[in-house]
Design goal:
Elements (H helix, E strand, L loop, with lengths): L4 E3 L13 H11 L12 H4 E2 L4 E2 L9 E3 L1 H4 L2 H12 L2 H4 L4 H12 L5 E3 L18 H7 L17 H8 L32 H17 L1
Parallel strand pairs: 1-5
Antiparallel strand pairs: 1-4, 2-3
Helix pairs in contact: 4-6
Length: 216
């Protein structure tokens, strides 16, 4: 099919890590107005708050993505990337690859060519988990996870904003209101001391055994 970009997570980035990112993006768009397409057909609202005309800090995480590489070779993407690179924000601030990708995708890709990769069971080193809320979905896909730890629709994610823009209904059993958390979530990077160890594989085996014992 002709889809262009698929993603799993939509994290909200800290503005402190990239204070000049969106300002430089807006400068680029003012200088290259001819590249704009109809905002009503794009995900421009994903990155731009229409009420404040400011950056939403929303991103598409690039750790797990499916993309038509022709987009990254396109004139629009190359021009935006080169302009942002020339501002040296990658060096003097904490700009990420997915920040630039998100700005480009939200600006130049029709929103009906963008899709969410649901039911992947994705779990990264920051402990961000994509866990289905619906029990039957868990059984169908053999997921062993706690939906209370789901990152996709948490307060730290922009997934709900994506669903609002796309006019999608929330997946079954996902709370309409963002769940309240006590304290601040702490994501710790996994430290692997022995390079021969594979904790992900060990955890998978243990979790699979628990799943089989509980549901099979």
């Amino acid at each position: 099919h002709d889809m262009i970009f698929g993603f799993v997570n939509a994290p909200a980035e800290s503005i402190q890590s990239a204070p000049s990112l969106f300002k430089n993006y807006k400068t680029f768009m003012q200088l290259n107005n001819e590249l704009l397409i109809d905002n009503s057909t794009t995900l421009n609202e994903f990155i731009l708050d229409s009420n404040t005309n400011d950056y939403t800090n929303c991103n598409f995480d690039s750790n797990f993505e499916i993309v038509n590489l022709e987009f990254y070779k396109s004139k629009e993407y190359k021009q935006l990337y080169d302009f942002m690179d020339d501002t040296n924000g990658f060096f003097y601030e904490r700009w990420t690859d997915y920040s630039i990708k998100t700005l480009a995708i939200s600006t130049f890709v029709p929103k009906d060519k963008i899709f969410w990769l649901d039911s992947t069971g994705y779990h990264d080193a920051l402990d961000r988990i994509s866990c289905p809320y619906n029990l039957q979905t868990k059984l169908d896909y053999k997921c062993y996870c706690n939906d209370k730890n789901d990152y996709s629709f948490s307060r730290y994610s922009c997934m709900r904003r994506f669903f609002d823009i796309m006019e999608f209904e929330l997946p079954e059993d996902v709370p309409l209101e963002i769940p309240k958390y006590k304290g601040i979530a702490k994501y710790k990077r996994l430290k692997i001391r022995d390079p021969t160890e594979n904790p992900f594989e060990d955890n998978y085996i243990k979790n699979n055994q628990k799943f089989v014992k509980k549901f099979m």
